[in-house]
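Private note to self, pasted from the team thread so I don't lose it. Backbone tokens:
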């Protein structure tokens, strides 16, 4: 699916992992409820000398291999279908606006699905939610293949798939804590899924372009149906069935009520809110150069091939930095770099002040992409801060908000470029984003572990959530 345990924190809900799996590190939550900006794991948490380390240890977990393969298949299918559906809508209407709207509709419904349906992630067993989401998406895409489906129907089905996506992604992110534990394996597993997402954007559009040379748009979309069905099969038969993360309460409540209540509890906790904003805020500003890549390439007289490089540079920087941080740095050091890297991550965009040529712009974009590696350590802080019974809803909301703020950032960058030169808009995004991120970093420090008692005294919502 498209683009991270119900028992007490220190008591696994599920039986021990089979012998062929690498057990997740002990969470040790009793000693560190929320690690804050300091180290999240001690050096003694390192695996035994003869055990697999780093990303190899994650792939040694059988269930994760199924999740990884399902993610790779469905994501490639989604990217191909986005390109093919855009071409199909343009062929049917001849309208550039409707063709572009097809892409936009892949982002806008995220906030709706992530807010109204987030309760699904905690109310039902994770495996069931993931499989049903894949099957629903496969059904929606299958209807797109029917020649009689009107353009309005194609766009509505695109919206429905996008509304389901955050529920799937949030549920999968929460399920990873059951599969990999809440320590370093979870962090590296999330990192691998992000790397796949970035790589799929580079590979998927290329594969989609090749497919469209030999298949019709509807023929290319057929690939997505197959990938969704394969993803559902992998998750159904490759992962264990686990109980729902939370009960429905006294007599049960409506799904909408549970979803909105979960959002209120998550956003009402000052610490969780600060960490969530640290995911969202830099992402909102860093998309400006990608959104304006075409007009900037035109402004500097770059070729169409150069435009492709401008669109790929940030993803390449992100993938390289995430692989390095995940494999070369210890959990302690990954935690230490979170706030400094987040604070400095948008500074490379200031190069646009001088209206750089292609080589310097590519270097700046690659560095800006590398700045996103701070989220590896932030993943650990977030999973430690969120109570288990809220984890599915929190991660669904996190996913929905992340996609929404990126879409909003692109729209605002485009609006600003109507009044100011493109290079000034990109540089301005770097300046404003850095200032906002510095203020947010200060807030994250204030809500760090050891100061929560003061925070709770000022905010009753914090007290309600963290005591659960």
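Design output:
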């Amino acid at each position: 699916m498209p683009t991270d345990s119900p028992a007490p924190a220190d008591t696994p809900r599920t039986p021990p992992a089979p012998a062929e799996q690498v057990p997740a590190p002990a969470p040790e939550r009793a000693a560190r409820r929320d690690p804050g900006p300091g180290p999240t794991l001690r050096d003694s948490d390192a695996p035994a000398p003869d055990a697999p380390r780093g990303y190899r240890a994650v792939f040694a977990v059988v269930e994760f291999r199924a999740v990884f393969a399902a993610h790779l298949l469905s994501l490639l299918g989604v990217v191909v279908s986005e390109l093919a559906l855009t071409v199909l809508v343009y062929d049917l209407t001849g309208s550039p606006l409707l063709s572009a709207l097809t892409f936009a509709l892949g982002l806008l419904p995220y906030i709706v699905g992530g807010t109204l349906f987030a309760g699904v992630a905690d109310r039902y067993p994770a495996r069931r939610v993931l499989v049903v989401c894949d099957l629903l998406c496969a059904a929606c895409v299958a209807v797109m293949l029917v020649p009689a489906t009107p353009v309005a129907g194609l766009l509505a089905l695109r919206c429905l798939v996008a509304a389901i996506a955050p529920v799937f992604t949030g549920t999968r992110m929460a399920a990873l804590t059951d599969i990999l534990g809440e320590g370093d394996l979870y962090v590296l597993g999330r990192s691998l899924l992000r790397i796949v997402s970035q790589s799929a954007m580079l590979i998927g559009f290329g594969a989609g372009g090749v497919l469209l040379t030999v298949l019709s748009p509807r023929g290319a979309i057929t690939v997505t149906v197959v990938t969704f069905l394969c993803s559902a099969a992998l998750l159904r038969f490759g992962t264990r069935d686990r109980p729902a993360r939370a009960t429905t309460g006294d007599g049960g409540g409506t799904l909408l009520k549970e979803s909105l209540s979960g959002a209120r509890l998550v956003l009402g906790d000052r610490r969780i809110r600060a960490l969530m904003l640290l995911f969202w805020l830099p992402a909102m500003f860093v998309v400006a150069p990608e959104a304006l890549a075409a007009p900037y390439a035109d402004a500097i007289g770059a070729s169409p091939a150069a435009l492709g490089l401008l669109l790929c540079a940030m993803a390449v920087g992100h993938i390289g930095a995430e692989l390095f941080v995940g494999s070369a740095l210890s959990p302690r050091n990954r935690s230490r770099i979170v706030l400094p890297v987040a604070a400095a991550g948008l500074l490379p965009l200031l190069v646009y002040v001088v209206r750089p040529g292609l080589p310097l712009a590519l270097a700046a974009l690659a560095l800006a992409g590398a700045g996103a590696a701070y989220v590896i350590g932030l993943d650990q802080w977030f999973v430690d801060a969120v109570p288990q019974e809220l984890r599915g809803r929190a991660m669904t909301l996190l996913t929905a908000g992340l996609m929404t703020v990126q879409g909003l950032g692109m729209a605002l960058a485009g609006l600003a470029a109507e009044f100011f030169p493109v290079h000034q808009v990109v540089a301005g995004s770097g300046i404003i984003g850095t200032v906002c991120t510095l203020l947010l970093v200060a807030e994250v420090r204030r809500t760090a572990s050891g100061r929560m008692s003061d925070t709770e005294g000022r905010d009753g919502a914090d007290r309600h959530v963290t005591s659960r």
